[in-house]
Every structure is written in C-alpha cells, then in structure tokens.
Amino acid sequence: MQITFGASAPEDCQLIAHVVNQGETPVGLEGALAEGAVVARFKGKPGQVFEGFVTRDDVTYRIALAGLGEADSDDRTANLEKAGAALAAKYLRSGEKAMALSLAGAGLSADDATSVLLGLRLRSWRHDVYRTKLAEDKKATLEHVAVTASPDGTSTAWVEKAAIAEGSEFTRMLVTEPANKVYPVSFVEKCVAAFQGTGAELTVLDEDVMKQLGMGALLGVGQGSRQPSRLLAIRWNGGGDESPTVFVGKGVTFDTGGISIKPAAGMEDMKWDMGGAAAVAGGMLTLVKRQAKANVVGVVGLVENMPDGNAQRPGDVVTSMSGQTIEVINTDAEGRLVLCDALHWAQEKFAPKRIVDFATLTGAIIISLGHEHGGLFANDDDLADDLLKAGKDSGDKMWRMPIGPAYDKLIDSPIADIKNVGPRGAGSITAAQFLNRFIKKGTAWAHCDIAGMVWADKPGATWDKGATGFGARLIDRFVANTLEG
Ligand code: BES
Ligand code: MN
Ligand code: ZN
C-alpha cells in the first residue's frame, strides 16, 4: 500500500475518510451525513467506523468516519492505530482503489497522525502470494491512501513509522512462509536481500564453522534434517563506542519434535517456530531503516528439527560451545539447545552489557499467559522493567515470570551437567533456567517466551489472522527508550 501526502485527492477517488474523537461532532460535513452518524449511533469509539454517502456535483462519494476514542485516553496510541486498522479492514477489499484521508480536525499531533497511518498499513498487510484462485471480491483493492490534510510534520514523522511497518511486515512474511520455503539457508538469503545496501553488516556461520566452534547443542538439533543449519548475525553500529545490545532469536524453521515426535494435529503450526528469529530480524530491519542511533546486534540460530536416521536420540549427551554437557531427554525441547549456543557465541563475540532473547520456546507459556502477554524472564530488574515498558509503549505486551535456584536445580542431570527438560510443572521457567546457565556473570539477560504471541487464530488490533509480527516493535521501542533516549 502506498501512502502519500498532498492536498488534492487522487483522481476518481470516491472514498473520503475523516477521523473523529469520541463525543465530538465532525465539522464541515453535510447535514444529512452528520445526522446519519447520529442515527447510526456513531460515537467515535476506538475502532468504530461509520459510512455515509453524499452526492457532490453529480458524483456519489463514500464518506467514512473513523472513531479515535477519547482524546485523553491512556490507550491513545493503541486507539489511533485501531482507527487506522478499522479503516483498512473495512475498505481493503471494498473495490475502492484509493482513499482520501483527512487527519486534521481532531487535534492530533504529527506523531498521533502517523499512528493512524501505521494501523492502516499494518492491518492491510496480507500474504496472498500462494492464492492463485482468489475470488475477485476477496482480492485487496485498496492500493493508495492519500493523506489530504494532516498536522504539520506528519509526512516527516511517517518516515520513522514506515520503518516500523517494514520491520513488522518482514517479521510477518518470515513467519507466514511455509517451511519448504523458509529454511535456514533461505532465511539467511531473505535477510541478505532485505538488508542489502542498508549499512548493516551480516555474518553467516555454516555447519563447518559451527563445528569448529564446538556448537554441539545447536548442531545436534539440526543433524536430523537435510537442511543445513546456520547462525546469522546482523550488526548495526549507529551509536558511539559502547558495547552493543544483543538480541538473539530462536529460528527453528520447522519443529516436528524430532525423534520425540509431535502429534500430527496442529503440527503445521510449527512452521512458525522461527518466530523469535523473525522478530529479531524484523526488529533489526526497523532499526536499520530508521538509522537508529544505537549499537545493536541480532543473532539468530537457524535449524530444522526433523527425525531422520541421523537425528539425535533421547538420552544423547551433547557438548555445547560453552563446554557444558547436556543430556537430551526430549528432542522436542530443541529451542533451548539452539539458543544456548547462540547465546554463548553472541556473548563471546560481542561482549554485550545486555542480551535479550526471543523464542517460541514452550507450550507451557500459552497455558500461563494465553495470547495476551509474552512471558518475560530476567536476571536483572532494570532490564526487565525496560522491556515491560517497551512492551506497553509498543503494544507487544510482556508479563514477568519468576526464576531462581529452586527451579534451577530441577534441570540437573545424573549423567551430564544439565538436562534439557525438567519435571511437568513450571515448564516455561525451567526452560528459562536452562538458558540462564549459559549467561556469563555480570551480563544482564532477559528471555522472552513468545510462543503464544506470534500467530493469531483471530483478527487482532493490527492484523487479520495469522502472523502478528510480535516482537519487532518491542525491539524497536526498547532500543529507542533505552539507547537513544
Ligand atoms: N516449539 C515448541 C513450543 C511451542 C508449542 C510453540 C506450541 C508454540 C506452540 C517447543 O520446541 C516445544 O516443543 N516445547 C515443548 C517442551 C517440552 C518437550 C519440555 C513443549 O512445550 O511441549
Ligand atoms: Mn519442540
Ligand atoms: Zn520448538
């Protein structure tokens, strides 16, 4: 979708949209329209859209009023996005090619106005590339949103917000693509293409290099697949001399469970078991596109977890890059095996002060928090608070969970240093404890278990169904709040 700024509406545009605060009457509308809005009980609630018709000079126009909610709401930003999203949902497949949108008259700041546009853009994202027989009325028609009136500075402010949209869309694309299209090598290729010419520095480790480095845990997961594993680092030096903040993502491009194989029902969902890696890649893309004034690195561990004749077995002992040995009790608890080597390598290579990982790590976090919050685990209260705040600000909400020695001892192994699963209870916490054993003393670390957040079966704030893009905006906001402040 193209978003442009300029006073005149595109030719033949018969869709005109306005934004309205809750309880305020839109000014400058024909009487019949204003009365129609009252009759239709349009109140300007967030996400509410009224449509009326007027004929001006023998041309009939659709006039849309989108509700912004109350001007002083605590949820103002989310409500502004919701208004844009509601317009997109209503008109994306309406047959209209263009929308003339006025963002004036509701007392919005430039930044507010771009929130409406961000909602519009995110809600109209779709991934129809494999739908060759899409019925005419199911096809998206809305191609162009022409902002005809807006607060001063809106088009400049939109440049930064558009970077957020690009990052989120990249995340959603990676998550949506099936596992025969996105596998470790092609994930890397898509990143190489996306970051081409941006100034970001990409480093790719293949299996030979990872073997030399001793990444036995990550490679053990990948050894049952025909698809070779990869480790990818995306580095952006937009700040001063300080050591970078590092984001690490779980990139299991498909998780069958391995020899501890998963049941067939719902296994197709495991194409999005690379949602952590996609969040990191998308978050980095946003930061790079908006030239963030910060030193950041995204590291993603990419493997496919398959059960072939060379697959690792339950009971196998592998040696991680850190030197710690791991008893693989359950080959389906593979994410932590990938992350432990990625986390260790990232700490060795970049000596970060802060490291934050993102992973669709456990089904248990969905039992705990459902689809409203990601689970946050941290060894540092300040880092945790910063992530909780970034979550609130960005809409990618997190909720803190406990860690501690009593949970840690549940993953002691009788034969190795550590085992990859604990008892039945507290499954998300013991997974976090596992990762914690690979964090160096003095490094602030947080782990975001986003298994419940990357995919949605129902339409949400800024998506229809499917990939939400969760995590990319959290990363962007966290960096903006803590490093660019
Ligand atoms: N990728 C899954 C976690 C998951 C489950 C993500 C459902 C999204 C939806 C992970 O690799 C896994 O299989 N975890 C196991 C751990 C168990 C074997 C200790 C789980 O959650 O069942
Ligand atoms: Mn698994
Ligand atoms: Zn997994």
Automatic annotation (TrEMBL):
Primary localization class, coarse: cytoplasm
Keywords: Aminopeptidase, Cytoplasm, Hydrolase, Manganese, Metal-binding, Protease
Binding, Mn(2+) 1: 255, 332, 334
Top-level EC class as recorded in UniProt: hydrolase
Gene Ontology CC, one term: cytoplasm
Active site feature: 262, 336
Cofactor(s) in the UniProt record: Mn(2+)
Cellular compartment(s): Cytoplasm
Domain Cytosol aminopeptidase: 330-337
Coiled-coil annotated spans: none
Catalytic reaction list: Release of an N-terminal amino acid, Xaa-|-Yaa-, in which Xaa is preferably Leu, but may be other amino acids including Pro although not Arg or Lys, and Yaa may be Pro. Amino acid amides and methyl esters are also readily hydrolyzed, but rates on arylamides are exceedingly low; Release of an N-terminal amino acid, preferentially leucine, but not glutamic or aspartic acids
BP terms from Gene Ontology: proteolysis
InterPro entries in UniProt: Leucine_aapep/pepB (IPR011356), Macro_dom-like (IPR043472), Peptidase_M17_C (IPR000819), Peptidase_M17_leu_NH2_pept (IPR023042), Peptidase_M17_N (IPR008283)
E.C. designation(s): 3.4.11.1, 3.4.11.10
Residues involved in Mn(2+) 2 binding: 250, 255, 273, 334
Domain of life: Bacteria
Example of a GO MF term: manganese ion binding
Cofactor note: Binds 2 manganese ions per subunit.
A family per Pfam: Peptidase_M17_N
Function: Presumably involved in the processing and regular turnover of intracellular proteins. Catalyzes the removal of unsubstituted N-terminal amino acids from various peptides.
Family from the record: Belongs to the peptidase M17 family.
Protein known as: Probable cytosol aminopeptidase
Species whose genome carries this gene: Altererythrobacter lutimaris
